[in-house]
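User: Can you help me understand a structure? I only have the sequence.
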Amino acid sequence: MKIHNEKAQSVSVSIVTAINQVIALMSRIPNDAIALLARISIGAIFWRSGATKVNGFSLSENAIELFREDYKLPLIDPVVAATLAALAEHIFPVLLIVGLASRLSATALLGMTAIIQIFVYPGAWPIHGVWATALLVIIARGPGFVSLDALIAKRMRP
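Assistant: Let's start by predicting it. Here is the structure, written out as tokens:
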């Protein structure tokens, strides 16, 4: 009985050691890599959405119709809302991807995400939660080393 108990305890210690090693390995994932992936991923999502709202350099009639008939945002004209959305979904993703004004851009897109969640697609909270998480990583931790923000900060240091 004692030998069986010692063997079980040894296996338990080995499992705990292996788990701790995996956790240690995972904790070595650099924040810079996480921030870069978050910036590119969420930037691509919003850029693609913005691309559906334009036809060349003009706002598409389809976008205006969506804002007029489907989205129905309160207190804002559908043409103004569609125009602002298209602009924001082209400007902020580019800034995020290159890492310029990253925290500001992420905050603006988080605000858009909140508006979409509350007024447009309230049932899509799991998707919007993922978007919000990526944006909050950028807001809270910054854009990472591979960004224009980091380059500018490095140049400004005495």
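Now, to help you interpret it: DSSP finds seven helices and two strands in the chain. Residues 30-156 form one domain. Let me know which part you'd like to focus on.
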